[in-house]
Amino acid sequence: MDKVTKKRNNYNSAVIEYIVKKYGVSKTYIRQSIDGTRKGVTCDILKKEYHKQEAAVNLALKKVLKQ
């Protein structure tokens, strides 16, 4: 009787909100696209957009923290 455990991922909520406004899809759909639960062309686009925007946010944060 092993329990199935799945790591819960934490996503950048600001980036999720940006994608919701840009593409008009739900937050749940975006999260499922990122973690691979959903498959498709739109999911691939959302996943790439999320990683691109997250990298930009992290870069800006690093610049601010260096000062």
| Whole-angstrom Rg | 14 Å
Query: What is the succession of H and E elements?
Result: HHH
| Content-based structural category | mainly alpha
The major β-sheet equals:
none
Residue-averaged pLDDT: 92
Q: How would you sum up the global shape?
A: globular
Which stretches are poorly predicted, pLDDT < 50 over at least 5 residues? none
**N- to C-terminal separation?**
53 Å
Q: Which range does the strand content fall in?
A: under 5%
Number of strands: 0
Number of domains: 1
Q: Which key phrases capture this entry?
A:
single chain, 67 residues, mainly alpha
What is the gist of this entry?
This protein has 67 residues and is an all-alpha fold.
Can you tell me about this structure?
The protein is mainly α and 67 residues long. It has one domain. It is built from three helices and no strands. Helix 1 packs across helix 3 and helix 2 packs across helix 3. The longest helix is centred in the C-terminal third of the chain and has 26 residues. The chain is globular, with a radius of gyration of 14 Å. The relative contact order is 0.15.
What is the secondary structure topology, with strand pairs?
Elements: H1 13-23, H2 27-35, H3 41-66
Helix pairs in contact: 1-3, 2-3
